[in-house]
């Protein structure tokens, strides 16, 4: 073969159609075999002008049977595989094989794709995999295909970023499918068997090694490892809150709480009815711009030098974002709008980067341009702007110092419209279970909070890492994995005075995009699925049959009783939520509220959305230590002193 003809065998696979379709190059030539062997970057064949790896397609060998697994048929001509599971250090992940299967509608599945650099795992599998990285040693990951166990070597698992940090080179897929990317079938170059330890200043995380630095108030530069910290939460109606309205009456505050619950219900309805799971869809809904939801706010500082701001404490949002200059369109806020041009640590993300691929709500109108996010809502509210990384500084409420979190993914909103009245918070502090939330960007996967009742205090704290309080086993129930990245629980039933209500357990189970039970920090009052609510309201009326219900003048609560008719809290029935492994009784303070007329009303309502889910709201969580152990998928609920 001449040198000219031989050169044709060196091709760039991603620029060449080699899918399993008749029109592809493989489909048009008479050779039924195709193979390639990608060297690592250090040992590969490079064209110095574009640094693309050369591939030799002419040499095909049939390897022994133990290295083979069958292709699966697919409608789009991709190379589908049957992945049965993943193990880490010999232990299989607790992931159903159905996570990797293609649905009858042609969605999901596992396929190899030469134009994708990093492997992208379906989110349920990714969350479970990421939770296994506990120690300072690199574990062995094995992909269990049908008839083939494929170990992923350390250097095909980890990548070194521009700061010299080791980063997990596997990303979450939010679209349900799994892609086996080119990075994970290269030849070996040798990554050391030991990574920086969890006790070091730099701790490995999903996107990058995020530096967590303690800066004592009397010092400006020393660094120390951080295993846990706590940040103060402030009730939005407290005099200490930047949203405090001294002219608001008690009736105003109750009505505002009700409106926040309704607004939050609209957000969840949109979240669960959203059929477009492409992360680059302009209708991708992840964080509520309507700042009315949420009773508690977090103060924090952003940028270098630091600028103080605050956001709603939100376990249902996946992205931390704030309004930013220059403003194309911004709503009024009580503090100056953040200007990223003044920060030395602000860095926009580019399309195709790990940051862009991780950020919820990201889109790329120009694939080679800057990464953007856009979130729209049916009430006309929206936020859009740049996806970026920035330094976020939190004041440790338990120490005389600050916690500096570097390289945190944020959304910087340059065009924001809020249709609600008043002065909303400048942004959201996203604390959901999705990778781009704040809690998942730092490697301290334990979170707890304990909110006092309104008459006992106006502030509390959220605790991270070793500072988080996860109470004893008898107060625990399991966190379920779900496609929405929310804190989902298994609720088996509800009883009133020891009698279990006639509610099918299936009412609380999630099926497709309907049902489910979620804990949420930005919903004030618990909302029950329709069938559960009807039975619950009837059961409460029967238990209180000696009293006649009255209409709620505030038109917020479904069941009220005249306080002047002899109705008292000490005669109300006991309500118990029966979670899997945990019977959780509601105290009087968690069940009843006084409306603007002085009557006692049941502080729970009906979810009027079509998705038929149940939300366990913050009013029912007051005076309760709520602890999330994300590594072990556990939530603990225990009454205590939250002051």
UniProtKB/TrEMBL annotation:
This is Peptidase A1 domain-containing protein. InterPro entries: Pepsin-like_plant, PEPTIDASE_A1, Peptidase_aspartic_dom_sf, Plant_Aspart_Prot_A1, TAXi_C, TAXi_N. Residues 296-638 form the Peptidase A1 domain. Belongs to the peptidase A1 family. The chain crosses the membrane at residues 197-215. Pfam families: TAXi_C, TAXi_N. GO terms for biological process: proteolysis. Keywords: Aspartyl protease, Glycoprotein, Hydrolase, Membrane, Protease, Transmembrane, Transmembrane helix. GO terms for molecular function: aspartic-type endopeptidase activity. One of its GO terms (cellular component) is extracellular region.
């Amino acid at each position: 073969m001449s040198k000219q003809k031989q050169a044709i065998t060196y091709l760039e696979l991603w620029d060449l159609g080699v899918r399993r379709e008749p029109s592809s190059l493989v489909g048009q030539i008479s050779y039924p075999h195709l193979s390639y062997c990608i060297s690592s970057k250090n040992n590969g064949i490079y064209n110095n002008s574009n640094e693309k790896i050369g591939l030799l397609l002419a040499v095909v060998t049939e390897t022994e049977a133990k290295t083979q697994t069958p292709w699966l048929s697919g409608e789009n001509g991709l190379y589908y595989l049957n992945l049965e599971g993943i193990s880490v250090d010999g232990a299989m992940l607790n992931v159903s094989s159905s996570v990797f299967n293609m649905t009858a509608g042609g969605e999901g599945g596992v396929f190899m794709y030469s134009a994708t650099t990093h492997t992208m795992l379906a989110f349920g599998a990714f969350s479970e995999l990421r939770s296994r990285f506990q120690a300072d040693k690199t574990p062995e990951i094995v992909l269990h295909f049908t008839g083939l166990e494929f170990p992923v070597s350390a250097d095909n698992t980890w990548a070194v970023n521009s700061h010299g940090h080791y980063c997990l080179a596997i990303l979450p897929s939010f679209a349900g499918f799994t892609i086996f990317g080119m990075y994970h079938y290269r030849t070996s170059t040798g990554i050391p068997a030991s990574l920086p330890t969890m006790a070091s200043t730099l701790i490995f995380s999903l996107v990058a090694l995020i530096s967590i630095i303690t800066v004592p108030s009397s010092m400006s530069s020393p660094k120390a490892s951080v295993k846990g910290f706590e940040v103060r939460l402030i009730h939005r109606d407290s005099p200490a809150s930047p949203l405090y309205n001294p002219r608001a009456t008690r009736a105003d505050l109750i009505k505002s709480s009700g409106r926040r619950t309704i607004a939050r219900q609209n957000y969840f309805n949109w979240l669960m009815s959203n059929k477009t799971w492409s992360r680059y869809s302009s209708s991708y809904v992840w964080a509520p711009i309507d700042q009315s939801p949420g009773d508690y706010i977090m103060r924090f500082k952003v940028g270098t030098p630091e600028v103080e701001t605050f956001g709603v404490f939100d376990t249902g949002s996946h992205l931390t974002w704030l309004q930013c200059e220059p403003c194309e369109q911004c709503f009024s806020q009580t503090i100056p709008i953040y200007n990223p041009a003044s920060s030395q640590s602000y860095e926009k993300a580019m399309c195709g980067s790990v940051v862009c691929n991780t950020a919820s709500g990201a889109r790329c109108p120009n694939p080679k341009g800057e990464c953007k996010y856009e979130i729209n809502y049916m009430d006309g509210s929206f936020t859009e702007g740049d996806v970026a990384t920035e330094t976020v500084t939190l004041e440790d409420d338990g120490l005389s110092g600050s916690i500096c979190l570097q390289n945190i993914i944020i959304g910087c909103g340059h065009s924001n419209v809020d249709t609600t009245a008043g002065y909303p918070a400048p942004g959201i502090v996203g604390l959901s279970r999705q990778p781009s939330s704040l809690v998942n960007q730092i490697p301290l996967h334990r979170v707890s909070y304990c909110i006092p009742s309104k008459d006992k205090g106006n502030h509390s704290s959220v605790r991270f890492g070793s500072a988080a309080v996860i109470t004893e086993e008898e107060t625990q129930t399991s966190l379920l994995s779900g496609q929405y990245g929310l804190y989902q629980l298994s609720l088996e039933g509800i009883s009133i005075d020891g009698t279990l209500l006639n509610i099918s357990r299936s009412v609380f189970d999630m099926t497709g995009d309907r049902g489910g039970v979620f804990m949420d920090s930005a919903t004030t009052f618990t909302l029950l699925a329709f069938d559960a609510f009807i039975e619950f309201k009837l059961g409460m009326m029967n238990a209180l049959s000696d009293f006649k219900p009255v209409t709620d003048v505030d038109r917020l609560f479904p069941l009220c009783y005249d306080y002047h008719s002899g109705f008292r809290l000490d005669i109300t029935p006991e309500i118990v939520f029966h979670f899997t492994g945990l019977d959780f009784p509601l105290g009087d303070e968690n069940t009843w509220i006084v409306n603007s007329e002085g009557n006692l009303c049941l502080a729970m309502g009906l979810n009027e959305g079509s998705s038929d889910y149940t939300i366990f709201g913050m009013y029912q969580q007051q005076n309760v230590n709520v602890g999330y152990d994300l590594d072990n998928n556990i939530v603990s609920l225990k009454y205590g002193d939250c002051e």
